[in-house]
Amino acid sequence: MSTLTVPHSVPSVGEDVEQLRTAFSGWGTNEKLIVSILAHRNADQRKAIREHYASTYGEDLLKELDRELSNDFERLVLLWTLDPAERDALLANEATKRWTSSNQVLMEVACTRTSNQLLAAKQAYHARYKKSLEEDVGYHTTGDFRKLLLPLVSVYRYDGDEVNMTLAKSESKILHEKIKDKHYSDEEVIRILSTRSKAQILATLNHYKDDFGNDIEKDLEADDKDEYLSLLRGTINCLTYPERYFAEVLRQAIIGQGTDEHALTRVVATRAEVDMKVIKEEYYRRNSVPLDKAIVKDTTGDYEDMLLALIGHEEA
């Protein structure tokens, strides 16, 4: 489901490092050379490049990239070059500092990673910021948002496929009763969404639709402008069908006046090695426009080239 394209014959890490050093030399930066290397190496290969660069030149590759690049292209390259756990830690820390869509980003990290990936992100957060992710989420969020987000980032879910159908039926009834009464932040709603495995939640929501006639998201559409309800719907989508959720985030980032480059960058950088192929299919199904064409229409230059390379555009 990844769209990352890695050459059949990958140059040695030493060759990649030498080429990157060459890209930084001279009168200007060779951005195309940087894209040709970093956009076509997997996470382990990028980590090896960073380590070899540091041991060879005594400098941090990320700092070099930061000095040499700028704007949206710089952010995309830096996010992509980071180890996935480090990247999640950085995104989460930015979110706790009230960057755009802060609650949404925290929810994404909590709900679309495996339990081990979330644990690794929290460990990276602890190492980098000398405090816990839970500590910052608890401090920087309030009210219903804190009630939902804190348990979401704290959980270590069962990741297997085993499901208790009796439990699914009983908890679908609990969810229906709470939502019918508009108790959207009730502790039982949050308990179910923040502790059950993704397979168990999916079974519960299937029972919800079968027994009560509607998808749960439809029953949560009482107020499109309610930010908490929007976050709750996003939580459910991320836990059950993240590809559909990310396709919608991309649509919102691209349509209308101006492009939300932060959202576009975040989704491409975090999902290219995971499920971007399915996200692209979902994007086309919902918008009748290929994602690469939408990106070409809304972006330019090296930023566009890097985006296209990461989503597997053949001519990138």
UniProtKB/TrEMBL annotation:
<dbReference type="GO" id="GO:0005509">
    <property type="term" value="F:calcium ion binding"/>
</dbReference>
<dbReference type="GO" id="GO:0005886">
    <property type="term" value="C:plasma membrane"/>
</dbReference>
<feature type="binding site">
    <location>
        <position position="304"/>
    </location>
    <ligand>
        <name>Ca(2+) 1</name>
    </ligand>
</feature>
<feature type="binding site">
    <location>
        <position position="299"/>
    </location>
    <ligand>
        <name>Ca(2+) 1</name>
    </ligand>
</feature>
<dbReference type="InterPro" id="IPR009118">
    <property type="entry name" value="AnnexinD_plant"/>
</dbReference>
<dbReference type="GO" id="GO:0009414">
    <property type="term" value="P:response to water deprivation"/>
</dbReference>
<dbReference type="GO" id="GO:0009409">
    <property type="term" value="P:response to cold"/>
</dbReference>
<keyword id="KW-0479">Metal-binding</keyword>
<feature type="binding site">
    <location>
        <position position="26"/>
    </location>
    <ligand>
        <name>Ca(2+) 1</name>
    </ligand>
</feature>
<dbReference type="GO" id="GO:0009408">
    <property type="term" value="P:response to heat"/>
</dbReference>
<keyword id="KW-0041">Annexin</keyword>
<protein>
    <recommendedName>
        <fullName>Annexin</fullName>
    </recommendedName>
</protein>
<feature type="binding site">
    <location>
        <position position="68"/>
    </location>
    <ligand>
        <name>Ca(2+) 1</name>
    </ligand>
</feature>
<feature type="binding site">
    <location>
        <position position="298"/>
    </location>
    <ligand>
        <name>Ca(2+) 3</name>
    </ligand>
</feature>
<dbReference type="GO" id="GO:0005737">
    <property type="term" value="C:cytoplasm"/>
</dbReference>
<feature type="binding site">
    <location>
        <position position="254"/>
    </location>
    <ligand>
        <name>Ca(2+) 1</name>
    </ligand>
</feature>
<dbReference type="GO" id="GO:0005544">
    <property type="term" value="F:calcium-dependent phospholipid binding"/>
</dbReference>
<dbReference type="InterPro" id="IPR037104">
    <property type="entry name" value="Annexin_sf"/>
</dbReference>
<dbReference type="Pfam" id="PF00191">
    <property type="entry name" value="Annexin"/>
</dbReference>
<dbReference type="InterPro" id="IPR018502">
    <property type="entry name" value="Annexin_repeat"/>
</dbReference>
<dbReference type="InterPro" id="IPR001464">
    <property type="entry name" value="Annexin"/>
</dbReference>
<keyword id="KW-0677">Repeat</keyword>
<feature type="binding site">
    <location>
        <position position="258"/>
    </location>
    <ligand>
        <name>Ca(2+) 1</name>
    </ligand>
</feature>
<dbReference type="GO" id="GO:0001786">
    <property type="term" value="F:phosphatidylserine binding"/>
</dbReference>
<dbReference type="GO" id="GO:0009651">
    <property type="term" value="P:response to salt stress"/>
</dbReference>
<comment type="similarity">
    <text>Belongs to the annexin family.</text>
</comment>
<feature type="binding site">
    <location>
        <position position="296"/>
    </location>
    <ligand>
        <name>Ca(2+) 1</name>
    </ligand>
</feature>
<keyword id="KW-0106">Calcium</keyword>
<feature type="binding site">
    <location>
        <position position="24"/>
    </location>
    <ligand>
        <name>Ca(2+) 1</name>
    </ligand>
</feature>
<feature type="binding site">
    <location>
        <position position="28"/>
    </location>
    <ligand>
        <name>Ca(2+) 1</name>
    </ligand>
</feature>
<dbReference type="InterPro" id="IPR018252">
    <property type="entry name" value="Annexin_repeat_CS"/>
</dbReference>
<keyword id="KW-0111">Calcium/phospholipid-binding</keyword>
